[in-house]
Amino acid sequence: MAPSDVAIIGTGLHPFGRYPGKSALEMGEDAVIEALADAGVEWSAIQALYAGSMEVKNPEAIVGLLGLTGVPGRAVFTGCATGATSLAMAAHSIRLGDADIAIAIGLDKHPRGAFSDHPSVSGLPGWYGEAGLFLTTHFFGMKINRYMHDFGITPITLARAAAKAFRNGAANPRAWRRTPMTAEQILESQYLNYPLTQYMYCSPDEGAAAVVLARADLASKYTDKPIYLRASTLFSRREGAFELLSPSLPLETAPSPTVFASQAAYEQAGIGPEDVDVAQLQDTDAGSEIIHLAENGFCKDGEQETLLAEGATEIGGKLPVNTDGGLLANGEPVGASGLRQIHELVTQLRGRAGDRQVAGSPRVGYAHLYGAPGTAAVTILST
């Protein structure tokens, strides 16, 4: 590692859920205070700030709560990939010499309902969601239905992915949904958009997360367990005629941008998927996790059926996925979601995850995101 590279020295998380009377900025303040304490630095030491949010148009205004130190604060938004983007921009500010210590912050406070109720995201009129025509749920249902047909995936595999998320959430004291459910219970719940049932979808909610980064050669001044940023990539789609918001259905001529982001990240980090010890994959719905296992190179299309039946993605499996419960157990405040992934990976790589700790001293963590309008991001961390 070059001495000019970047390390994570602290993380903070305001648990995701519902917090009436508490603003997104206030949740962000709590996450930052926790991250600063974890890093062992004062707010005045932060030299660059990148904050991401969907609902808050100027999230960099969090400096009004934390302290007006003159720190340059910049707002970031790339849909569900926002957390990875804010982290990458904070890291780039260090690599460019603009800062020795920087912070990435994500925060959001979404109302109840599917994201198609948000004209700022979908561009659709309000009546669309009010009539029950939820764009996001329709799209994800159609996408996994096509994938199941093409590659022999059965509904029990979707249910197993969701049941794993809720088991992991039950072991995570900061998760929103902490009630375990069996695969059978999930299968028997009502369909929202075939083949996805009620408990196969995540929900918009509220929360915040923060990550403090430093020059790698300075990291040991602040922590005895720095986590190094090995790769950070982001790609947008190259084609897409089937949908409005997310990567297109699998096409031979234009794979999902996840494929390009993943391949570039492995090249940057100098590793392959076989080297990853713990992964966080975007699981807006249970089907997305299934598809993303293949798109990120962890298996071939169709192999997920056997992998999940064998427990390969469980905490005790060969590739633990979404060890904190992922989006299904935590919900998705869009601006904060990607940094929640980083918080969990850092917790795992430091060996501090308690009942959900991956055994064997994991060394490499992998985080994947995708969101509107077909933007995919991958981050690779290591000890």
TrEMBL record:
Give residue ranges for domain Thiolase N-terminal: 6-175
Superkingdom of the source?
Answer: Bacteria
Protein name as it appears in the record = Acetyl-CoA acetyltransferase
Signal peptide interval = none
Q: Which GO terms describe its molecular function?
A: acyltransferase activity, transferring groups other than amino-acyl groups
Q: Which InterPro entries does this one have?
A: Thiolase, Thiolase-like, Thiolase_C_2, Thiolase_N
Q: Name the SUPFAM superfamilies for this protein.
A: Thiolase-like (SSF53901)
List, for all copies, the residue spans of the domain called Thiolase C-terminal: 257-380
In terms of Gene3D superfamilies, this protein maps to:
3.40.47.10
